[in-house]
């Protein structure tokens, strides 16, 4: 049997793969009867993995990542090369025995792949799109129940707003909430408490991306905060405060103070916040921090005087800081 799994919801896709492994039976036997193929594996490697006999169970599982996309046409319309290689893979796919479940995984549909065209009518195809708003709320509700907790409808909506459609992040936050609730109903106050921690962590990651000049990461971090309802002026305020704190932390560390003493002097009580502050203060030169502070102040003034829209201003700030 051949199964094609594709979609941008890699969390649900990964969970489905794990469920297929669990269906094989006892974990040690499932491990022994599962083969993962990634990268530039050959048709011979695929054929050998599929033709191997199951070991003490009725079926083997072979998971091959990115095979269909390897032979799909490029965005410019040019067809891929490798006709002989394509033929070899088609031959391998045609003789997959019933005792093997072959799973082909892709991050997006590859319907123009010559391999996929050969599999039409023979392979089962399952897509994993990102959940829509209503589906996301249902997903959160079920995830909480599966984890042994209960959650109020308002808390579901608030959590969906804060974390968005990143199911990896949501699954992690649900686990935290269930532990934090201690068997009680998860309410909006609990989610608010968690969301404040999520935003603080996202703000630290945004600062880190800016200092490293990673425009893509900084842009994603910025819009995650904006989409979560955080106002541009509040984001600027945190960033300015963080950069000033880094300058002061640099000075204190230069005087020979230990991280714990720096935390006491700067009134940083949370271990995560102190760890991030000390790490960034040690890693980045004063000149970069000074430049970032100057641009932050310019942006803040531009917003408050009405010269720039808040969202547009912080976008320009991120691009400017990342470009040096």
Layout of helices and strands, plus pairs?
Layout: E1 2-6, H1 10-22, H2 27-32, E2 34-37, H3 43-51, E3 60-65, H4 67-70, H5 83-94, E4 100-106, H6 114-119, E5 124-127, H7 133-146, E6 150-151, H8 153-163, H9 167-181, E7 185-186, H10 188-212, H11 215-227, H12 232-254, H13 259-266, H14 271-283, H15 286-304, H16 310-322
Helix pairs in contact: 3-5, 7-8, 8-10, 10-11, 11-16, 12-14, 12-15, 15-16
Q: What is the CATH H-level superfamily of the largest domain?
A: P-loop containing nucleotide triphosphate hydrolases
Mean pLDDT: 85
Low-confidence stretches: 75-79
Number of structural domains: 3
Task: Name a few traits of the molecule.
alpha/beta, 5-stranded parallel sheet, two-stranded parallel sheet, Rossmann fold, 3 domains, elongated, Zinc Finger, Delta Prime, domain 3, 324 residues, 16 helices
Please describe what this structure looks like.
Helices cover 63% and strands 9% of the residues. The longest helix is centred in the middle third of the chain and has 25 residues, at 188-212. It is elongated, with a radius of gyration of 25 Å. The relative contact order is 0.08. Helix 11 (215-227) runs antiparallel to helix 16 (310-322). The protein has 324 residues and is α/β, with parallel strands linked by helices. It has helices at 10-22, 27-32, 43-51, 67-70, 83-94, 114-119, 133-146, 153-163, 167-181, 188-212, 215-227, 232-254, 259-266, 271-283, 286-304, 310-322, and strands at 2-6, 34-37, 60-65, 100-106, 124-127, 150-151, 185-186. It is built from 16 helices and 7 strands. The chain has 3 domains: 2-127, 3-Layer(aba) Sandwich (Rossmann fold), CATH 3.40.50; 133-186, no CATH class; 201-322, Zinc Finger, Delta Prime, domain 3 (Up-down Bundle). A 5-stranded parallel β-sheet has the order 2-3-4-1-5, with helices on both faces.
């Amino acid at each position: 049997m051949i199964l094609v799994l594709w979609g941008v919801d890699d969390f649900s896709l990964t969970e489905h793969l794990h469920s297929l492994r669990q269906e094989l039976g006892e974990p040690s036997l499932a491990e022994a009867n599962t083969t993962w193929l990634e990268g530039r594996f050959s048709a011979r490697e695929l054929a050998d993995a599929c033709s191997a006999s199951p070991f003490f169970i009725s079926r083997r599982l072979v998971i091959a990542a990115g095979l269909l996309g390897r032979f799909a046409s490029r965005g410019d319309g040019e067809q891929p090369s490798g006709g002989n290689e394509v033929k070899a893979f088609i031959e391998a796919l045609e003789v997959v025995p019933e005792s093997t479940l072959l799973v082909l995984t892709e991050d997006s549909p590859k319907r123009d792949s010559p391999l996929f065209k050969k599999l039409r009518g023979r392979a089962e195809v399952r897509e994993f799109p990102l959940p829509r708003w209503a589906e996301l709320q249902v997903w959160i509700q079920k995830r909480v129940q599966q984890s042994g907790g209960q959650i109020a409808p308002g808390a579901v909506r608030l959590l969906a707003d804060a974390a968005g459609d990143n199911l990896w992040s949501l699954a992690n936050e649900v686990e935290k909430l269930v532990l934090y609730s201690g068997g009680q109903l998860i309410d909006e106050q609990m989610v608010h408490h968690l969301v404040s921690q999520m935003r603080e962590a996202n703000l630290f990651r945004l600062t880190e991306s800016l200092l490293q000049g990673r425009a893509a990461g900084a842009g994603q971090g910025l819009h995650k905060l904006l989409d979560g309802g955080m106002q541009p002026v509040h984001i600027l305020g945190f960033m300015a405060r963080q950069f000033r704190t880094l300058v002061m932390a640099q000075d204190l560390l230069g005087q020979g103070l230990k991280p714990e003493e720096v935390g006491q002097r700067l009134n940083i009580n949370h271990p995560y916040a102190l760890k991030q502050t000390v790490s960034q203060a040690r890693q980045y030169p004063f000149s970069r921090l000074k430049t970032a502070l100057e641009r932050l102040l310019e942006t803040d003034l531009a917003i408050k005087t009405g010269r720039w829209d808040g969202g547009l201003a912080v976008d320009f700030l991120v691009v400017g800081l990342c470009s040096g």
